[in-house]
Amino acid sequence: MKILVVTEQRQGKWNNASFETLVAAQQMATAASGSVSAMVVGKGVAGLADELASKNVAEVLLVEHDLLENYTADGYCTVLKQVIESAKPNLVLFPHTYQVRDFAPKLAASLGKGMVGDCVGFRNEGGKLVFVRQMFQGKTAADVTFLGATPWFASFQSGAFRADLLAAHPSGKAPVKAVKVELKAEEIRTKPLELFKEAKSSVDLTQAPLIVAVGRGIKAPENIAQAEALAKALGAELAASRPICDEGWLPLERQIGSSGQTVAPKLYLALGISGAIQHVVGMKGARTIVAVNKDQNAPIFEIADYGIVADIFEVMPALTEELQKAKS
Amino acid sequence: MGIADSDRKETLVNIIVCIKQVPAKDAPLAIAGNWIKEADIGFEMNEPDSYALEEGLRLKEKHGGEVIALSLGPERVKQTIKEALAKGADRGIHISDDHFADLDPLGAAKLLAAAIGKEKCDLVLTGLQSDDHGFGQTGVLLAGLLKLPHATIIMQIDVQDGKMKLKRELEAGWFQWIECPLPAVLSIQSGINKVRYATLKGIMAAKKKEIATITRESLGVTLDPTQKIERIYVPAKTKQTEFLTGTPKEAAAKLVEKLKFEVRVI
To answer: How far apart are CA A32 and CA A310, in angstroms?
Structure first.
């Protein structure tokens, strides 16, 4: 089985999820006796290709073009289709990033193929590759298999594999192969403009040792004060899942998850958070996770060290009081 | 897809919003093969799609045109189309399909694209992903099938001089402006707007609005599935959770003990 990993960089900087996907590919190659190639796409990215060549891969494909300096879906779909047609991999793997979501399904479809996106793992069942992904916001997992001829396309969720397990090249360096691609300016229909960050945030949750986070279970903006009082009693920063920030009940800078901050505090106390994947990827690195939720089947309990199955509106004041007692 | 090419400027013709109906957020899920038992649970508009609908309604209020709510699924999805009509969509299209749970992302997109192809439209909007399957591919696949440009994870849309300036959300707090011509397909990020509620007047008005039903078969689409959900199941726990029981006060006291002596953060 020939596996091709499409890595991701922006302005010469890696998206580290690329290395997690390389680890997935290495493990898959071991399980299904295959080889791994890695691809880097952009302009002036030969240095990055060199870096990839030091990893345990059979070869590195360097895909460069002036029109690939900035990402566009049209540019990437056009050239990646050419590379896949000439390299003929059986399996094309991506990190499940926002950028990959923007083009990979269409790339697969342009070759008449499908993509299994956002996978959290795989199994080799007697030569049959089974991909595992989540459904119903993480409440269930699903085993998915490909139908029809290869190439197959799949992406792996950030955090599903550990980048530090990436194996180095056994004998020094893999060959870097520059792949010639054709791309015309008129094939790119969208025009990327400036990149920017919103106003500087006043709180850095990534540095907070203790975090109290609220989710949909908080129900109304006037209830935030109860969580605030609890955070204050604990000496923690207050954070939230996306719906709370979407509603404007807490500022965006306090949002934890795939579109917000990724944190790894000593303690993460999740109040009324169901544990949707998009939130969990931002906090599963916490050393200790405590979850309070009235639904005992909430996926947050899958990753919690301590759980209280109860109404948060009964637990918050009780916990605040106990904390104040313990600290006085 | 046909486009009126006369003097487009800042007037939109049609906006098609793809809306999925999904199990209600608090619905207890009973797994059955590669789907769930549908009896006894409630269904609702996929939340990410409600942001796409709202954005469509706002664009219509600003630039004119018609908003068409398009949904694929069994008879029950008509209720969600009615909700879209009550909020202000002008008409609905229902692709009737009792076996939608067997569709792979590409198959669903092919059916939607076939229905969209029968309409004149400037803009196709989708939510970011569904809260049930969560494939998150529909918008991008539609763009490929309809041969239209696209952009995803959109946080702002400004229509001007026949094209759009879009704010895309990237990861880790970054954003990017991009320019995109019309017609196009956009996947809308949740939180782009504040979703409206249907008014009583809207609900009354919706009763007179048309919902056209098309069967999956009549679209003449060759599905050719690319992937198969073998089974769904409750994932094995990766951590042993210690549940703290008792009254809320007792559980809170137990937790404080743990935080003090085991987690050692107090």
So the answer is: 46
Rounded (10°) angle between helices A98-110 and B138-146: 40
Query: Cβ distance A67 to A192 under 8 Å?
Result: no
pLDDT at A224: 96
| Confidence category of residue B10, pLDDT binned at 50, 70, 90 | low
The answer on B176 and B66 residing in a single domain is yes
pLDDT of residue B264: 86
> Do residue B117 and residue B174 come from a single domain?
yes
Contact B178 A193 (CB under 8 A): yes
Question: Could you read off the pLDDT of A111-131 as tens digits, one per residue?
Answer: 999 999 999 999 999 889 999
Residues B178 and B265 in one domain: no
Q: For A205-327, which CATH class? A: alpha beta
**Burial group, residue A279, by CB count within 10 angstroms (0-12, 13-18, 19+):** buried
Q: Which of residues 39-98 of B touch A (CB under 8 A)?
A: none
Q: Judge if A2-187 and A205-327 fold alike in CATH terms.
A: yes
CA of residue A231 relative to chain centroid, distance: 28
Tracing tokens 């094939």 back to the chain, one arrives at A187
DSSP A211-254: EEEE-GGG-SGGGHHHHHHHHHHHT-EEEE-HHHHHTTSS-GGG
Q: Which residues contact B114 (CB under 8 A, 6 or more apart)?
A: B219, B220, B221
Residues B139, B244, single domain; the answer is no
Average pLDDT over residues B103-129: 96
Chain B residues near residue A209 by CB distance under 8 angstroms: 265
Judge if B157 and B85 occupy the same domain.
Answer: yes
User: What is the reported pLDDT for B7?
Assistant: 42
Number of domains in chain B: 2
Tell me the residue range of the domain where B250 lies.
236-266
In a shared domain, residues B198 and B79:
yes
Contact of A199 with chain B, judged by CB distance below 8 Å, is answered with no
Residues B55 and B82 in one domain: yes
- In the predicted structure, residue B60 carries a pLDDT above the cut 50: yes
Interface contact A306-B241, CB threshold 8 A: yes
Residues of A in contact with B226 (CB under 8 A): 108, 113-115, 146-148
Rounded mean pLDDT, B231-259:
91
Mean pLDDT by 10 residues, chain A (328 residues): 97 93 96 94 97 97 97 98 97 96 98 96 92 92 96 93 91 96 98 85 83 97 96 96 92 88 92 93 92 94 95 97 91
Q: Which CATH architecture has domain A2-187?
A: 3-Layer(aba) Sandwich (3.40)
* Residue B171 located in a structural domain: yes
Give yes or no for A307 touching B (CB within 8 A): yes
To test the contact with chain B by mutation, choose from A139, A153, A206, A210 the residue with the greatest count of B C-beta atoms within 10 A, namely A139
The residue ranges of every structural domain in chain A are: 2-187, 205-327
A99: left (phi over 0), alpha (psi -120 to 50) or beta: alpha
Residue A217, token pair as written in the block? 């279970």
- Averaged confidence pLDDT in chain B: 92
ipTM of the complex: 0.89
B153 touches chain A (CB under 8 A): yes
Whether the upstream peptide bond of residue A151 has omega within 30° of 0, thus cis, is yes
